[in-house]
Predict the structure of NADH-binding protein.
Amino acid sequence: MTKTVLVSGASGFIGSHVAARLVEEGYRVRAMTRRPRDYHGAGEPVEADVSDPGTLAAAFAGVDVAYYLIHSLGSDDFEQRDADAARTFAKAAGVAGVERIIYLGGLGANDGELSAHLRSRREVETILKAGPVPVTVLRAAVVIGHGGISWEMTRQLADRLPAMVTPRWVRTRTQPIALTDAVRYLVGVLEPAEARGRTYEIGGPEVLRYVDMLQRVAKIRGSRLPNLTVPLLTPRLSSAWLKFVTDVDSATARNLVDSMTTEVVVHDDAITRLVPGPPVGYDEAVRLALADRERAARHDRAQAVR
């Protein structure tokens, strides 16, 4: 029997692509959104808000599996908001008798050194797991794809700077993953029974420093990006600098920069055996993201002419 799947955050960066992939594979998709009249993505829009528990019962009715793809990174009180939202979602899923929740969290060793952003992702994971519904967790670092905040920040820095004077955190190692692979893994864990209650780490085939990522984007764009690392540039000063150079808002920039001091790499590749397939390399992921951006720009120009 065809499963009914609820995708929270269906109008967001990851959620919109997950919803589209699920529809392509024949699932009945409920796209959870606060503004269903404005929703134009895949699936059937259903109005619900994790900050309003009374709206969730109708959204969860008849749902087999629910994706939790919500994060309030752009608010100063995001840790509390995310914790409250996760409790509300887990409770509603339990009342509705949902078979499983699938959650996308963040990589990083839980050694007391996690940033507020990554600590919040891990707390949401813990809260969801404490609920009555089995949870499958996927942990990722930077997802490379058009519309992603971390990727957009990287692209804008590579495009707009003739050279970089950077803090030490640009030498932190990370394992970026292509949007196509992140979605492939998220959808790939839906059916396998062995994925119930499991946590998987997902990443691309390369471990890179943030400075490597920036310089390779610049090279793909046909330019160079010389770098001078200055130890005195603190995360707070870095986030203020990012606000001037990129379009990322101050709160989001600050929270992202705090996370960039933490190494986020895959230590367990079990997901590659559950959901096999060759991962997309970083350079190809960048090219795909740039191509999607150009397609979106052409579409917007065509709409403006009309």
